[in-house]
């Protein structure tokens, strides 16, 4: 009997297990969950020089970068979601948004011009006005008058005429009724439900509260899967049935919502609470039955006790007990181990809003205020978009402190101004899987702040790390990212206005032209990044062109200074673009370097646009994948910096013709190959970058041990004999392939081994180059041998 080496057998068995496991999903290693976000800050209309008392806008823009789908595990974006809508139905919800009682309003409209035929006499809805015209003009009425004229001793009666043309008017009796807060809240809630209607793994519940609470159950469940049409219709009907009446027991409404979410289910939990007023009731345990809450008697915030009663007046909270009840439940929410994400919406004035904010702070929640129906709609819509997305960077916080030389005129409604600081949340960054299923994508975001210049001088907006966003990244680490600084000059009189462009020429790419367009005659000076003077001359209004060489361009920008005859100075920069790398292959990555805080306005390849409106990263870099043609390729890049000045670069890239055939390798198992196991094949180019576009395999006929490309002529272009592309999990199971799994020049495929013999493998790249190899397999078996 042949003796089997135990170590060799174990190694062989492990290899076969890996091969068998290739069809089974293998969990990826820990990944970096950081979401890349490029940020840009600029002055709208590029007004970096303004006069005292001028206003200008600062624009803040965010460009979340696409995240490859394999970066995240499915449980990171297929998380079930539980949402509770807690809606105030107290009596004041029957008022309008200004706190006035709803009543029928009846009034006359303004008069409108009509034709004479439409005019009706003796009706107070109509009116006509006489306008004096000349005798020869069209007229509707002539009015005669007479007077006496003396001629010697006699008197003569003289007649005069005045001519009038009429303009006819009509007004209308209007009946109107203002919309109540209740109706506005119901419309916003229904639109929120509509956003989530088809969302899988999403449960929604509704609780109304006033003096008491009412939980909306269906079949003894209050958290209902909303992608079920019957559940959806029930939730919409429950919202439609809400009506206003009673006091405001905020704490009790909060507690019912907290109870419904404080469960052991493995889900994201959203607590969305709406009120239009201050709390006026509270619920407590009256243990001594004396009709009032004593210090030793607890609020209703757990399922225990007896003599549950309601306290408060229903109209005020002079003793603060109703407010403290809300704060008490807020602390329960904050302390829950279920990570409840709470949102508190004040549909009210500042007094009620400040009260709700105090409660929200206790819950570590997100406070939002709506002063109109549209504002309320926007808040619910924003939350609906966030919750229905695959995943989000939630509650992104912004802050910037401005120099006292600027007055803060306006800022986003979701933020607040404290002295010279604007701060607050501007929403969430929501990612969804693209149609191709390859990346999670998020829309760009933008907001503006309007400033007014008060004092002349030179300033830096955002200087000293005073401008940043803060958010919790996908890896649960809080990140702070700063915006770039912007130079701003404020003058008593108008400084020169410039537009500057730096571009090389298509025909002579080492030669550059600097074009300075200026609105008045001025002394122009050009410096490099080291403040070395490159040019100094008397500039004229209009275009001033300077020839430059590539050797004069140091760093990522040039400095340009203009000084007019009054001594007013404008300092700006113009970006320099550099191609730092690009491979000599068909599928290449272009890496460009330019001034930080710039926008890549376009990238054209052979006169076809491949990218527009992209932001550079924090180092001024941008990367773009390109598919180059054999031979010469012309790349044109455009960039705009925060001053609105532009750079253009023409760059030629040639690649040699690809005449090299693909290289085919395989993993020839040295042990047994089980019936139906996959045969991994590894195909690569010789480095020219042409991708593999077609692969086939065939089992050779008995006695054949070699094959040529001609043997595959009947298979090329068909679906017969096609090899199957391996997934990354399958590649991970074969360690020898893992280092190359993300290289575009490699293709990993497999075919099923059905029987021993000679197999031929064919590969063709996009350059038309072909190759064939033959693989001998003689160790296939139906099952593992008996080791005993």
Automatic annotation (TrEMBL):
Residues 286-313 are annotated as: Disordered. This is VWFA domain-containing protein. Residues 1-28 form the signal peptide. Residues 82-387 form the VWFA domain. Keywords: Signal. The keyword Membrane does not apply. It comes from Petrocella atlantisensis. It holds the Pfam family VWA. PROSITE patterns: VWFA (PS50234). The keyword Signal applies.
């Amino acid at each position: 009997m042949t003796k089997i080496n135990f170590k060799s057998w174990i190694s062989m068995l492990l290899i076969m297990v890996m091969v068998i496991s290739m069809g089974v999903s293998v969990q990826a290693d820990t990944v970096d969950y950081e979401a890349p976000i490029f940020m840009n800050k600029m002055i709208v209309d590029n007004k970096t020089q303004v006069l005292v008392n001028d206003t200008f806008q600062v624009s803040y823009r965010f460009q979340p970068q696409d995240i490859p789908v394999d970066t995240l595990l499915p449980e990171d974006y297929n998380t079930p979601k539980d949402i509770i809508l807690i809606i105030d139905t107290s009596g004041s919800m029957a008022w309008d948004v200004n706190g006035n009682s709803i009543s029928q309003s009846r009034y006359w409209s303004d008069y409108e011009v009509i034709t004479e035929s439409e005019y009706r006499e003796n009706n107070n809805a109509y009116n006509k006005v006489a306008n004096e015209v000349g005798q020869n003009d069209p007229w509707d009425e002539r009015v005669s008058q007479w007077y006496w004229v003396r001629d010697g001793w006699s008197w003569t009666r003289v007649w005069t005429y005045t001519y009038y043309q009429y303009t006819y008017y009509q007004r209308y009796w209007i009946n109107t009724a203002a919309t109540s807060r209740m109706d506005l809240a119901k419309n916003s809630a229904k639109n929120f439900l509509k956003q989530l209607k088809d969302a899988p793994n999403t449960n929604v519940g509704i609780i109304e509260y006033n003096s008491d609470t009412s939980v909306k159950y269906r079949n003894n469940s209050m958290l209902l899967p909303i992608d079920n049409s019957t559940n959806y219709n029930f939730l919409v009907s429950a919202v439609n049935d809400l009506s206003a009446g009673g006091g405001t027991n905020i704490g009790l409404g909060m507690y019912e919502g907290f109870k419904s979410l404080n469960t052991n289910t493995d889900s994201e939990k959203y607590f969305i609470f709406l009120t239009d007023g201050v709390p006026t009731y509270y619920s407590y345990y009256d243990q001594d039955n004396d009709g009032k809450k004593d210090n030793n008697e607890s609020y209703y915030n757990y399922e225990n006790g007896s003599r549950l009663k309601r306290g408060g007046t229903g109209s005020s909270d002079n003793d603060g007990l109703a407010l403290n009840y809300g704060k008490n439940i807020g602390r329960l929410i904050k302390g829950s181990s279920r990570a409840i994400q709470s949102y508190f919406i004040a549909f009210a004035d500042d007094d009620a809003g400040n009260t709700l904010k105090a409660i929200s702070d206790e819950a570590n929640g997100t406070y939002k205020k709506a002063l109109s129906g549209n504002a309320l709609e926007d808040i619910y819509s924003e939350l609906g978009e966030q919750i229905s997305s695959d995943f989000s960077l939630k509650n992104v916080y912004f802050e910037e402190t401005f120099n006292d030389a600027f007055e803060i005129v306006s800022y986003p409604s979701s933020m607040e101004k404290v002295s010279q600081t604007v701060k607050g949340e501007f929403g969430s960054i929501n990612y969804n899987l693209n149609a191709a299923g390859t990346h999670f994508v998020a829309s760009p975001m933008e907001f503006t702040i309007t400033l007014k210049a008060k004092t002349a001088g030179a300033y830096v907006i955002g200087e000293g790390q005073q401008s940043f966003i803060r958010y919790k990244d996908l890896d649960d680490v809080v990140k702070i990212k700063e915006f770039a600084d912007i130079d701003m000059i404020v003058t008593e009189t108008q400084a020169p206005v410039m537009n500057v462009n730096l571009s090389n020429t298509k025909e002579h790419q080492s030669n550059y032209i600097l074009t300075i367009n200026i609105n008045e005659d001025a002394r122009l000076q050009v410096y490099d990044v080291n403040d070395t003077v490159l040019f100094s001359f008397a500039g004229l209004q209009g275009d001033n062109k300077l020839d430059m060489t590539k050797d004069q361009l140091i760093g990522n920008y040039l400095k340009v200074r203009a000084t007019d005859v009054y001594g007013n100075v404008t300092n700006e920069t113009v970006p320099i673009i550099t191609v730092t790398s690009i491979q000599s292959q068909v599928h290449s990555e272009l890496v460009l370097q330019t001034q930080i805080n710039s926008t890549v306005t376009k990238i054209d390849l052979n006169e076809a646009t491949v990218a527009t409106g992209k932001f550079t990263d924090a180092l001024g870099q941008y990367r773009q994948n390109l598919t180059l043609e054999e031979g010469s390729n012309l790349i044109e890049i455009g960039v705009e910096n925060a001053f609105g000045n532009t750079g253009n670069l023409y760059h030629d890239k040639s690649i040699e013709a690809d005449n090299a055939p693909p290289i085919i390798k395989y993993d020839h198992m040295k042990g047994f190959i089980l019936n139906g196991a996959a045969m991994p094949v590894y195909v690569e180019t010789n480095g020219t970058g042409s991708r593999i576009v077609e692969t086939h395999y065939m089992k050779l006929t008995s006695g054949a041990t070699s094959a040529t490309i001609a043997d595959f002529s009947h298979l090329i272009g068909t679906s017969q004999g096609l090899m199957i592309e391996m997934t990354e999990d399958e590649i991970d199971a074969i360690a020898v392939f893992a280092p190359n799994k993300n290289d575009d020049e490699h293709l990993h495929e497999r075919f099923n081994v059905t029987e021993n013999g000679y197999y031929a493998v064919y590969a063709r790249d996009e350059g038309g180059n072909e190759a064939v190899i033959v693989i001998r397999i003689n160790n296939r078996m139906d099952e593992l041998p008996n080791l005993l």
